[in-house]
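Example for tutorial group B:
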């Protein structure tokens, strides 16, 4: 199963390589493409494949909903005993199935997920990635991978069924993997860099916010303790000022210190209110109980 978005130049090679690899291990198979509102010719190319091969199924979403939501939609339609999930841009190689399948069988697990042996990108990308995964592990109560995860993963049908029971609007797939449980192991891969990433800075920031707010309430608890710390510090500072005023050993802090304190405390309060607002907005969205994707059409050759 895979998703497509601006993938027209990769689809045919992806199909040929995926089919060749999968046929070495399985006789009965299906390839599901989920078109996540791609603006290029990806949809028409997959439709042509559907007309030639009845094992191909195309799920057309009504617009672009996002990579992870498109994946969850595709998984809900996957019917096999084993589900091989990967991206269609060939940065994740279809031939990896051999290694994933060997790990899956030898360790008797329900999920083998890919992690990058060496994270791609520049120094800033690698450092921020390390901070991101460390932060997620620190604030959540789950064992989240510490390396850059990939889309590529091989899962059992029962694991997939349990994963698809999650219906929340804001989530990160690697977090749901960890929350689902079962026996799962990582598998190191070397991901290629064939095309510019569709994950912009804003997209990455949204992903971080989704990961933090969907996996843990720790930031809310931390703000409470942070507020208590500021309150205690203000009491100690007040005692110091009063003592200085009574003893005249030091002048009472003037305008500068007052303004600095006001700006500092004001900024902290606004940041805390913003954090609470994010959680409230998440609750607001979830209570609407909207579908996280809308399927416009499911296309496959009728036999």
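The residue assignment follows.
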């Amino acid at each position: 199963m895979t998703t497509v978005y601006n993938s027209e130049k990769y689809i045919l090679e992806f199909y040929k390589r995926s089919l060749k690899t999968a046929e070495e291990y399985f006789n009965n198979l299906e390839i599901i493409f989920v078109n996540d509102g791609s603006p290029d010719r990806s949809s028409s190319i997959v439709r042509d494949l559907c007309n030639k091969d009845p094992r191909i199924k195309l799920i057309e979403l009504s617009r672009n909903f996002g990579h992870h939501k498109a994946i969850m939609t595709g998984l809900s339609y996957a019917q096999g005993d084993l589900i091989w999930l990967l991206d269609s841009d060939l940065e994740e190689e279809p031939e990896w199935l051999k290694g994933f399948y060997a790990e899956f069988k030898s360790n008797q697990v329900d999920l083998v997920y890919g992690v990058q042996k060496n994270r791609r990108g520049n120094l800033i990308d690698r450092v921020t990635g390390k901070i991101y995964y460390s932060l997620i592990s620190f604030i959540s109560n789950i064992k989240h991978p510490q390396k850059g995860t990939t889309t590529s993963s091989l899962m059992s049908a029962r694991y997939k069924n349990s994963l698809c029971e999650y219906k929340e609007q804001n989530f990160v797939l690697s977090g749901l993997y960890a929350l689902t449980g079962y026996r799962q192991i990582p598998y190191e891969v070397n991901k290629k860099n064939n095309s510019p990433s569709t994950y912009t800075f804003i997209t990455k920031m949204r992903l971080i916010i989704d990961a933090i707010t969907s996996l843990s309430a720790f930031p809310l608890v931390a703000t409470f303790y942070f507020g208590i710390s500021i309150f205690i510090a203000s009491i100690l500072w007040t005692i110091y000022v009063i003592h200085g005023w009574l003893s005249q050993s030091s002048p009472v802090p003037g305008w500068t210190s007052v303004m600095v304190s006001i700006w500092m405390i004001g900024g902290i309060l606004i940041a805390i209110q913003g954090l609470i607002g994010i959680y409230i907005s998440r609750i607001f969205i979830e209570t609407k109980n909207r579908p996280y994707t809308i399927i416009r059409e499911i296309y496959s050759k009728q036999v």
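The mean pLDDT is 79. Compare this with the pattern of hydrophobic and polar residues in the output above.
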